[in-house]
Design goal:
With 505 residues, the protein is an alpha/beta fold. The chain has helices spanning 8-21, 61-76, 85-101, 103-114, 118-139, 175-188, 203-214, 229-238, 251-263, 288-300, 317-330, 352-367, 401-404, 420-428, 443-452, 489-492; strands at residues 27-29, 32-34, 41-45, 52-57, 146-147, 154-162, 165-169, 192-196, 222-224, 244-248, 268-272, 278-281, 312-316, 371-374, 378-379, 387-388, 391-394, 411-417, 432-433, 435-439, 457-460, 475-476, 493-501. Helices cover 40% and strands 20% of the residues. The strands form seven sheets. The protein has a seven-stranded mixed β-sheet with strand order 14-17-18-13-12-20-21, sandwiched between helices. It has a five-stranded parallel β-sheet with strand order 9-8-7-10-11, with helices on both faces. Strand 12, helix 10 and strand 13 form a beta-alpha-beta unit. The chain is globular. The protein starts with 7 loop residues before the first helix and ends with a strand. Bound molecules: nicotinamide-adenine-dinucleotide (NAD). Nicotinamide-adenine-dinucleotide is lined by residues 169-173, 178, 196, 198-199, 228-230, 233-234, 237, 248-250, 253, 256, 272-275, 307, 406, 408, 434, 472, 474, 478-479, 483.
């Protein structure tokens, strides 16, 4: 049994202790810590209270060059790729164990850095990261290559080989977890990696790389270059020495990734991008309490900063008034509070920019005539942190800005509909296609609608199932490729065919 989570004061004391000891924000390249080549730094500001918690190396072209050279050298001499799958598995299992052992420290870093509740960092982000690394470790010596069905006079082997150097560029909403979705399959397959964490949440990436070294991952196989997108990110994605980019982030930046590829070496680009997922509640569903609780919980989890948040709630006319009332009664459970308090459900948004963006969308919703039935304002301003009250808009039209654009904050748009066909049309009327949900007791409708919805994942009568065993990714402008599951190996391996002629005896 797990020990009980320590109370708020203990987490504040731990945070004070961590900050007093100081956080090492230097780059990690070839197993060593370095200052940026030009010595520049950026401030890492906690959205909990607006205080600077670390000064982090601001990687640029020269640093990325060094990291890519280190990754290339590690790949070329086969210090990792040349190890047997069983040997790689052993190291990655040790890595997963070290992540588990560092649970409290990693959770604290994540929460201080980007504002999510400590409860979630402890129960979801750290264990999810460890499980991801463990799962790919366990998978790698169970994946077989292929022999093609040729005739007697030939043998054709189809082998999966690592692509080489993988550039992983990740966002700030689940910093560790998103990194692990790239690291797990890329490292297990034998690649070398250069990870560029978001400038808004660089701390856990650096710590993860230290833990990997400690677990026995050879130097140079996993390098971390923090920095800004237009500097370190652009240098990595344009680099001629990078063979594939695993990108998670906004659709705007995903577009750039494709440009960088075409302007450089046509490296493979796998984009995991934004979403505006529809969650459709039909009047025939008989447990509207559970549907409302799930709609609110999935929307406000992680402050609404989730790519797959069900931010468009489509409710059938007959039940809409009652459903919106239920939602309204649930909203107070998600009042923002101190992220270091283990009782907190909704923490701080990542930074002032994000708060301003979210508040801009709230103003746009009001201006366009939607009815704000909960929230709509900042909260806890005296803390100096970034808090926005969970917000629900009713009477939203799907053409409004708050229904078409990804807000990435705790703002839910309720859209009313009359018929199944209308619901499908509204749900699919989006540039995005990441997730979608539907609630019905009618089996035919469940199958019909889940087939008609254009998204990478469909949820029926739930919205919270998730596991490393299933692929995660979207269609349309939500991206391509899939993270998680065995399918993620497709992104970090090349298929190589070897033909052999077999002479008759
Ligand atoms: P972002 O696109 O601003 O940044 C993501 C990463 O790209 C960061 O590391 C950033 O520094 C880097 N970057 C930014 N500009 C760059 C440039 N010009 N060149 C190279 N790199 C650059 O996204 P964000 O605000 O960090 O993250 C939020 C977005 O991520 C949302 O749209 C969300 O939906 C999406 N997301 C998607 C998934 C998924 O699996 N589909 C998961 C999590 C988040």
């Amino acid at each position: 049994m797990n020990a009980p989570t320590p109370p708020r004061d203990l987490w504040h004391a731990r945070a004070a202790d961590l900050l007093a000891r100081g956080i090492d924000g230097r780059l990690l390249i070839d197993g060593k810590r370095y200052h940026a080549a030009d010595g520049s730094l950026f401030d890492c500001i906690s959205p909990i209270d607006g205080k600077v918690i670390a000064r982090v190396a601001r990687g640029k072209q020269a640093d990325v060059d060094l990291a890519v050279a280190s990754a290339r050298a590690a790949f070329a001499d086969r210090r990792w790729a040349g190890q047997s799958p069983a040997a790689r598995k052993k190291v990655l299992l040790a890595f997963a164990e070290r992540i588990r052992a560092a649970r409290d420290e990693l959770a604290l870093l994540e929460t201080l850095d980007m504002g999510k509740p400590i409860k979630n960092s402890l129960s979801a982000d750290v264990p999810g990261t460890a499980r991801c690394i463990q799962w790919y470790a366990e998978a790698v010596d169970k994946v077989y290559d292929e022999i093609a069905p040729t005739g007697e006079d030939a043998l054709a082997l189809i082998r999966r080989e690592p692509v080489g150097v993988v550039g992983a560029i990740v966002p700030w909403n689940y910093p560790m977890l998103m990194a692990s979705w790239k690291l797990g399959p890329a490292l297990a397959a034998g690649n070398s990696v250069v990870l560029k964490p978001s400038e808004k949440s660089p701390l856990t990436a650096l710590r993860l790389a230290e833990l990997a070294l400690d677990a026995g991952l050879p130097e140079g196989v996993f390098n971390v270059v923090p920095g800004y997108g237009h500097e370190a990110g652009e240098a990595l994605a344009l680099h001629m020495g990078v063979d594939a980019i695993g990108f998670t982030g906004s659709t705007r930046t995903g577009r750039r990734m494709l440009e960088y590829s075409s302007r450089s070496n046509l490296k493979r680009v796998y984009n995991e991008l934004g979403g505006k997922s529809a969650n459709v509640v039909f009047a025939d569903f008989d447990d509207l309490d559970r549907a409302a609780q799930t709609a609110a919980a999935s929307m406000f989890y992680n402050q609404g900063e989730s790519c797959n948040a069900p931010s468009r709630l489509l409710v059938q006319d007959d039940i809409a008034d009652a459903f919106v009332a239920k939602l309204g009664s649930l909203v107070p459970q998600y009042a923002p509070a101190d992220p270091l308090d283990p009782g907190t459900t909704l923490g701080a948004l990542v930074d002032e920019n994000q708060t301003q963006t979210v508040m801009g969308y709230i103003r746009a919703g009001i201006d366009e005539g939607a009815r704000c039935v909960a929230g709509g304002c900042r909260a806890l301003e005296a803390t100096g942190g970034q808090y926005v009250a969970p917000t629900v808009f009713d009477n939203v039209s799907n053409r409004m800005k708050i229904a078409q654009e990804e807000i990435f904050g705790p703002v839910l748009a309720v859209i009313r509909f009359k018929t199944e066909a209308e619901a499908i049309a509204i749900a699919n009327d989006s540039a995005y296609g990441l997730h979608a949900g539907l609630w019905t007791r009618n089996l035919d409708r469940a199958v019909r609608v889940s087939r008609a919805l254009h998204a990478g994942t469909i949820h029926v009568n739930q919205y919270d199932e998730d596991d490393i065993t299933v692929p995660f990714g979207g269609v349309k402008q939500s991206g391509n490729g899939r993270d998680k599951s065995l399918h993620a190996f497709d992104k970090y391996t090349e298929l190589k065919t070897t033909w052999m002629r077999i002479e008759a005896a």
